Amino acid sequence: MKSRETIRVGAGAGTSDDRMVPALELAERGDIDYLVFECLAERTVSRENLARSKDPELGYSPSLHARLRMVLPTCLRKGIRIVSNMGAANPLGGARATRKEAADLGLGDVAVAVVLGDDVSSIVKHRGELTLIENGEPLESILPKMISANAYLGADVVCEALNTGAPIVLSGRVADPSLFLAPMMHEFGWSYEDLPKIAQGTAAGHLLECTASVTGGCFGWPGKKEVPDLARNGFPFADVKADGAVVIGKTPGTGGRLDVMTCTEQLIYEIHDPTAYITPDCVLDISGIALTQDAADRVRVEGARARPRTLTYKVNVGYADGYIGEGEVSYGGIDAVARAKWAAEIVKERLKLQGFVYDDFRVDLIGMSSLHGQVDTRPEPYEVRLRMAGRTRERKAAHAIGFEVRAMHMHGPGGAGGACEPRVRDVLAVKSVLLPKNLVNAQVVVEGAL
Amino acid sequence: MSVRVYDLAHARAGDKGNTSNISVICYDAKHWDFLARELTPERVAEAFKHIAKGPIRRHPLRNLKAFNFVIENALGGGVTVSLAQDIHGKSLSNVMLAIELPDPK
To answer: CB-side exposure of A430: number of CA atoms within 13 Å?
Structure first.
């Protein structure tokens, strides 16, 4: 098991809505040993917790079925092991769903190692004194509205799950780079004391965790940063050696590009202090990293450093925080902007007349000021789309925004067109606290026979 | 004469909570010192004053021909509660690229 000198870890998903087929291309043509699906955004676990409260079998990532149905035959045939956080708020339920998919595909009784313990809601509900990182207030202030509390577990417990030998590992909340570091720790026997290797593996995980973002997605610019065949861009993998050497590559025969430029953008992505990127496994320092083009679509990563991991886990606390309502309608031609602005004033007055109040309210002129704010020196566009949005405790008040914007067709300034249906969504807000690691009981259970 | 950040560098924006981080990466390492001198946190704050309250910190990454700008209070409260269309602020890198600087020559 631990005799391989190099392993290849592929990235099969970087968000719950990521494309499906590139993971299959990796499995079929990428010559990978591990396929990692990272499918949890900040609030996803809260949403899935709500799903689970309605049906105790649900709460795992809904995309689990389609993703696994597609790759399981190839992965099991080739011995590619799957690691994923698609267990979301119900990793055991996800494991049962996984085993059923495998059985339905005629693949037999497939064991799934399940990582548990990230759900710390029963621990933090007695610790209202913990401080919310975002605003310094006590956790107590949001406890009554809490829907979920999940610790970002590290690679150690995922590694433990791989040690069981199960072909599939399913977890809930695990830090994104840790999902990729775990196979390296498992194969090469790295421990948290092997800091240069943990650093290299964490950097590799960070480069892979957003899949196509390192292979030309979210990158191209016509005439400036060309990306070939972007409609078919492939997903990346890392070739990792036991000594911590890392080279990033991508599925042969796919579109996109992988070079020092794409890797640099992804390396700095969502990092604050580059000398202290805190994961559950280490405190990573990317400032000394050198990226080198080894060959076409192959980039070498060297020089990652790390300090030992901290004594705490970051815990995301999800809570219900009212509703967001929104509406849109368009104006074109002469005085389009003036008519849109007039409509906005009418809608605001209508909402006020009905006594609705909003914690936050926003008026956008799409085509002018919706992305980068209002600057008076910009020229007026030929057409503009008015968008109004508000956050409120009352569903009715949220709905009224879209209702009144749509009513501009009949009751507003002349020539309004194309209003959308009123939109209302539940707000699942997320704040975070730090929880001592020794309070968290991360563990592995195996579903099915090994 | 002036240049835009766009002429010398590429950029990507990411989000964590209510904080945006925007990388600025030189196409050519020879422009790093110029950007270190001219693309100050103050200049960036001026370009973002109608979007973000700040504060803004700049982390130099000479090894990567890059800088990382960390802009706080930039995302309408953060992705889970923001009323913005672009809740992640992915498009904010383009505000950075449009900043004009004195001609380096």
So the answer is: 20
